Known about the structure:
This protein is mostly helical. The chain has 7 helices and 6 strands.
Amino acid sequence: xxxxxxxxxxxxxxxxxxxxxxxxxxxxxxxxxxxxxxxxxxxxxxxxxxxxxxxxxxxxxxxxxxxxxxxxxxxxxxxxxxxxxxxxxxxxxxxxxxxxxxxxxxxxxxxxxxxxxxxxxxxxxxxxxxxxxxxxxxxxxxxxxxxxxxxxxxxxxxxxxxxxxxxxxxxxxxxxxxxxxxxxxxxxxxxxxxxxxxxxxxxxxxxxxxxxxxxxxxxxxxxxxxxxxxxxxxxxxxxxxxxxxxxxxxxxxxxxxxxxxxxxxxxxxxxxxxxxxxxxxxxxxxxxxxxxxxxx
Length: 296
């Protein structure tokens, strides 16, 4: 083969190989619907895609944290609403028991219903989500409240609050410990009901009347906690909405850098197929069949 022929052969071979490589690239883009599949496709875009995917993964984790926290905040809110209803009922019974027209036997009967309501309050204090106590502080593996002898209720949790990560160096409290709710700063609700039961069963009208004031304090205490829980729920929702927006923004950035323009890729593939056919035909016209055997 002459030098000129060899040079032409190398040129045509190089064009054919490039066209084939470009055709394979277009085929891959069409099948994967991605313009960038590996670093060499576009080093700058690939690096940004890696960073954005990492950010998207972290955002997804924060959203999962919020879902975890929201389930517990909602459970706490529902339980506290029921607690208020029970305290209201206990107060109604207490007013009835404090009446001078209520007999000792009547007060004994009322005490039986109040005791059942106390047990329901304990159950609400032991509310769980997915097997974890809501009002136990960070001690989620035990029932926070236990009824001991003499209608005394003891707290087995701790005074620590739970928080979750919702952003870079950002946390949100998701639970209020039971010690701040039932045995909190204003009044110990369970002790008040225990003393009320003692007064009813001993026909102590003045003790019963004093219990009304304690129940009013209990109502105010629960209301304060409900406000706190409501504020936590609102913050979680606002943060969730912001992260949803961030997720859309990051996903679009990834798509802009990574996704293929299918119309363009299909058009390029057609052109590359034409180029490959043209290069192959050039070989056929210029070189004989024996020379074509050297093609890969």
